[in-house]
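User: Just a sanity check before I run the rest of the batch. Below are the structure tokens for the first item. I only need the designed sequence back.
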């Protein structure tokens, strides 16, 4: 009987870890990325940080300059952690004059529940009100416009903004636009008052290993501040036996051991899981991400662990390639082509790019021409005689001038590629469009 009970608790602990991992990751990311200093409020007294304020990346990422893997080289990030505990917040966005941008809104369970930007709300200057769960107050008539009132599923939100940038020469214009993103309380917005960031204590060490005690403390607080959907009440009642419940306290020895063992089993399995589906061409399509993961807690945990902050697939999709058309791992010892036939470029409404990453650290690749990505905005690409486009992917510069114009430099060792497609058309999401395979040209470098 004891063995049966133990096995049941082990299974429950694994289920609980999968369910709760996104909450833990959000606590870690909030502690790691919320600012201790901001321009409008100065330095927050340690260990406090600021929320309800936008922070901006001012430079394009280069090799080794990112805290996240597979970094973006097409956009600058503009982020904010929002606490709706005191009531609605208003986000003002500037007129980007048609320039692509998106603010992706994640609830505390990592659901990308809303998007503000070109695809859904346009690029004109607008204001949006975010209201807390269950809030029934009145908002000004200005927020009667379609999409202007956003119902938040949780008290805490993470806003991850991306604004298109066309290289270093474009940065001054981008910085001016970034400064136009503002968050205020509804009362301050109505009064025309200046933004007032709010200090909070993240109470989390983002660099700590996933120790059971630290994990449980973060999850308990997250559950208290961000109650789960009503349909999860029975689930949380079962997890109380393991200390993963909003009303739970410090773990006892049995709970700590069970959770620690479950973390040791679950995390390696998730890391080893391939998130997408591989095509015969060698490309791996990312799983479709909707505005809510629903009851697919495993996929939610997998995305939180590997790709936290992903946008809804209708906003962006990211096929990856680690292998060529013959299933061989991509490596700088070889030369490759990626040819798009006439009319076969990635079908997007915004833009597409192909970015190079070193397999050792998942970072951008240092190269002599400072080209980390190539795509529809790359100047002076050479098209084929039939109107198609052939990209050259290799370590050494191609000898031919036309090939050099279309060259994406690779490292000397193993690498992988990410094709970013922003606002993909339906055929790219439902499988009707297939990316061409990577063809290996030879064994010489």
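Assistant: Here's the designed sequence for the first item:
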């Amino acid at each position: 009987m004891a063995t049966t009970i133990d096995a049941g608790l082990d299974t429950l602990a694994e289920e609980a870890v999968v369910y709760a991992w996104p909450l833990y990751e959000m606590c870690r990311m909030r502690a790691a990325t919320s600012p201790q200093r901001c321009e409008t409020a100065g330095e927050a007294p340690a260990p406090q940080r600021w929320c309800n304020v936008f922070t901006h990346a001012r430079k394009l990422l280069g090799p080794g300059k990112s805290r996240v893997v597979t970094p973006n080289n097409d956009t600058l990030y503009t982020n904010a952690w929002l606490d709706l505990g005191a009531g609605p917040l208003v986000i003002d966005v500037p007129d980007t004059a048609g320039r692509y941008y998106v603010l992706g809104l994640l609830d505390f369970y990592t659901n990308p529940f809303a998007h503000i930007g070109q695809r859904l709300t346009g690029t004109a200057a607008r204001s949006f009100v975010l209201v807390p769960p269950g809030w029934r107050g009145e908002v000004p008539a200005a927020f009667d416009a379609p999409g202007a009132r956003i119902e938040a599923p949780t008290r805490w939100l993470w806003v991850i903004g991306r604004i298109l940038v066309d290289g270093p020469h474009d940065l001054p214009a981008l910085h001016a636009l970034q400064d136009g993103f503002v968050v205020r309380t509804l009362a301050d917005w109505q009064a025309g008052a200046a933004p007032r960031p709010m200090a909070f204590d993240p109470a989390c060490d983002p660099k700590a290993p996933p120790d059971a005690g630290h994990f449980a403390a973060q999850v308990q607080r997250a559950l208290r501040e961000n109650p789960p959907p009503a349909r999860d009440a029975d689930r949380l009642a079962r997890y109380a036996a393991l200390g993963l419940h909003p009303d739970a306290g410090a773990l006892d020895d049995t709970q700590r051991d069970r959770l620690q063992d479950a973390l040791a089993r679950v995390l390696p399995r998730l890391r080893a899981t391939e998130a997408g589906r591989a095509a015969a061409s060698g490309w791996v399509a990312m799983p479709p991400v909707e505005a809510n993961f629903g009851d697919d807690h495993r996929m939610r945990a997998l995305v939180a662990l590997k790709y936290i902050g992903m946008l809804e697939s209708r906003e962006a999709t990211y096929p990856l390639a680690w292998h060529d058309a013959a299933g061989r791992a991509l490596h700088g010892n070889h030369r490759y082509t990626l040819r798009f036939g006439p009319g076969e470029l990635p079908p997007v409404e915004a833009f597409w790019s192909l970015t190079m990453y070193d397999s050792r650290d998942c970072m951008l690749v240092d190269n002599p021409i400072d080209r980390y990505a190539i795509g529809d905005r790359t100047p002076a690409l050479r098209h084929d005689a039939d109107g198609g486009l052939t990209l050259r992917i290799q370590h050494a510069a191609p000898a031919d001038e036309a090939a050099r114009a279309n060259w994406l430099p690779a490292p000397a060792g193993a690498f992988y590629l990410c094709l970013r497609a922003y606002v993909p058309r339906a055929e790219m999401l439902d499988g009707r469009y297939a990316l061409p395979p990577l063809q290996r040209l030879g064994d010489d470098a």
